[in-house]
């Protein structure tokens, strides 16, 4: 499964994209799994205002995922 | 032509590095819309200060694909809410200098109220839903712009606000 990061989240993790083989059942579990990668990952993945999109649609922690999905984590948006 | 196809063809979205020509966008809204009596356009520019800090430039990051998809969805929501003739949205990405144009939103409608409201609705949703992120330059330092509660509140007011029936609006 492809996991993308944008904006300040991308910069803090120093990563734009990772690949997760055999992803967990939902977003909440994926966040917990990624948070174990290190201190910064823990902080970022536990950010309360962190947004998540599955296949380019905003969703929440309960969203179920499979290995063919594309997941993206990013901070609140600031366009316009 | 089905209503869905008809509606979506009236929506034009562009996310681009290049600058845009407001007059071109306005003329595109004007064309083939003889039943439309009003066009409202908004242009957002890079300002030289933000929350009391001098700003010397901006960098705009986005999520390719999702950006276009979310802008089209916002335009569709506006068209479902007001009888709009057409919607054009242009949003720039990349490096921008002071006074540069960032965003264009243009809306046509039979009467001005739908056009004014549709344009404002699109900007309020764009600022809180479309995946763009601004990085602000101030001299040698660069900081990510933080989302404002006031922008979220501006969007939320549409959730409770009922659209005034067309029959009750002045022409």
CATH superfamily of chain B: Molybdopterin biosynthesis MoaE subunit
CATH fold-level assignment of chain A: Ubiquitin-like (UB roll)
- For the terminal residues of chain A, how far apart are their CA atoms? 31 Å
The CATH architecture of chain B is Alpha-Beta Complex
Number of domains of chain A: 1
List the main descriptive attributes of the protein structure presented here:
heterodimer, A: 80 residues, alpha+beta, Ubiquitin-like (UB roll), five-stranded mixed beta sheet, 3 helices, B: 171 residues, Aldehyde Oxidoreductase, domain 3, four-stranded mixed beta sheet, four-stranded antiparallel beta sheet, 5 helices, 36% helix, globular, disordered N terminus
SSE layout and pairing:
The complex is a heterodimer of chains A (80) and B (171).
Chain A: E1 2-5, H1 7-13, E2 17-19, H2 27-35, H3 39-45, E3 51-54, E4 57-59, E5 70-74
Parallel strand pairs in A: 1-5
Antiparallel strand pairs in A: 1-2, 3-4, 3-5
Chain B: H1 3-8, E1 11-16, H2 22-30, E2 38-45, E3 49-50, E4 53-54, E5 57-62, H3 66-81, E6 84-92, E7 94-97, E8 101-109, H4 112-129, E9 132-138, E10 141-144, H5 149-160
Parallel strand pairs in B: 1-6
Antiparallel strand pairs in B: 2-8, 3-4, 5-7, 5-9, 6-8, 9-10
Helix pairs in contact in B: 3-4, 4-5
